[in-house]
Each structure stands twice: as C-alpha cells, then as structure tokens.
C-alpha cells in the first residue's frame, strides 16, 4: 500500500519501507513507530492518506523539483548575487495573486497574516509563525514542502533563495511599509527561521 504526505506529496510505500530511517520493507503505515515523520518535510504519519490507485505516485513532484533546482543553481552560477532581483519576482507573483483575492496590504501584521493564511491553505507548510518589532520581522516555517529543495541548494553553496514564504513575506512588507527588506535565513528542524530587516525606502 502507498500513502501520500498531505504537505509535501512524499509517497510512503509500505512494500519498500524507509530503509534510510531504519524502517524495513513490508512495514505498513499504521505499524510505523510513533516518532516516525515524513523524511522530506517532517510531518507526522497521521498526515498521510492512502492512495487508492497504487499507480499514482510523486512522478510529477520529482521532475518539478529537479527543474527548480537546476534553474536556481544555473541562475546563481551566471549572476551570483545579482540573481536576487529575479528571485524577488517569486514573491511579487504571489502578492499579485493575493491582491486578486482582495487582500489589502495596509500594515505589516495583516500583510504577514495574509501570507500565512494563503500558504497554509494551499498546503505549502503546516504552520508559519511570525513576529514584528523595531522595523524587523522574524518568521519560522514549520514542515515546509520545499525544505528538501532548499537544503540541496544550500549544500551546493547557492546563497539565493527561491523560498516562496521568504520572497512573498519580503514583498508583502515592502507593499505595506514602503521599505525594502534584506533577507537572511537559517535551517531549523524541517523548515527555516527567516529574518527580514528593513534597509531602505522604496
């Protein structure tokens, strides 16, 4: 039987098990240890659902992630830090979608709350916590759908980020405050802690 993660679409195949994490072949989802989590995003096993058609898998997810990985790595190789202006457009694209839904970016708190609601609704992550103080914002993304992809890029020395939360939050703050924000982030669990610092007036 195959089961699909509700956050990152990872497929747990009970016939194959999860040998990298000590789970033998033939172990059904219900028989996994209580502390087992998705090896991609870290979500608990009760967030997996059975695939009725066992031919359905993550075939689309793998090539898409590979394409994003290759494009981001190539962009960094060619343009280095000059790539930031390109990756910021990821955030602008999501902001435009939120505007279509009637979201008004009137202040920093409501702007980040709208970003949080959007990404959780679309199952990009399980949760997103944020705090705003003294012209800065801190975000903590939990059980991120893109964690594995970001980790691979970081291991390859790619310093730009295609993270949708980071870029969208930065653009949301820019829309609501009229200031540009500098992005920095660090790995935390199966997600990232993101720091956004106000740097200059638009």
Automatic annotation (TrEMBL):
Transport recorded as keyword: yes
Keywords: Electron transport, Iron, Metal-binding, Transport
Entry GO MF terms: electron transfer activity; iron ion binding
Cofactor: Fe(3+)
Pfam families, per the entry: Rubredoxin (PF00301)
CDD domains linked: rubredoxin
Alphabetized SUPFAM superfamilies for the sequence: Rubredoxin-like (SSF57802)
Positions of the Rubredoxin-like domain: 2-51
Entry's Gene Ontology BP terms: alkane catabolic process
Keyword hit for Phosphoprotein: no
Annotated TM spans: none
The protein's role, per its UniProt record: Rubredoxin is a small nonheme, iron protein lacking acid-labile sulfide. Its single Fe, chelated to 4 Cys, functions as an electron acceptor and may also stabilize the conformation of the molecule.
Family: Belongs to the rubredoxin family.
PANTHER family: RUBREDOXIN, RUBREDOXIN-1-RELATED
Name listed for the protein in its UniProt record: Rubredoxin
């Amino acid at each position: 039987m195959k089961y699909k993660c509700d956050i990152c679409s990872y497929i747990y195949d009970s016939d194959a098990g999860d040998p990298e994490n000590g789970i033998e072949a033939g172990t059904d989802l219900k028989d996994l240890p209580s502390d087992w989590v998705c090896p991609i995003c870290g979500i608990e096993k009760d967030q997996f659902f059975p695939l009725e058609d066992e031919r359905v898998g993550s075939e689309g997810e793998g090539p898409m992630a590979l394409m994003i990985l290759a494009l981001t790595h190539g962009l960094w190789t060619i343009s280095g830090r000059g790539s930031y202006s390109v990756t910021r457009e990821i955030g602008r694209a999501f902001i435009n979608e939120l505007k279509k839904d009637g979201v008004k970016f009137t202040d920093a708190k409501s702007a980040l709350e709208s970003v949080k609601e959007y990404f959780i609704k679309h199952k990009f992550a399980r949760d997103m916590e944020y705090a705003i103080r003294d012209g800065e914002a801190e975000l903590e993304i939990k059980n991120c759908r893109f964690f594995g992809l970001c980790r691979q890029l970081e291991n390859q020395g790619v310093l730009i980020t295609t993270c949708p939360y980071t870029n969208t939050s930065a653009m949301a703050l820019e829309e609501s405050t009229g200031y540009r924000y500098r992005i920095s982030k660090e790995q935390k669990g199966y997600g990232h802690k993101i720091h956004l610092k106000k740097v200059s007036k638009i």
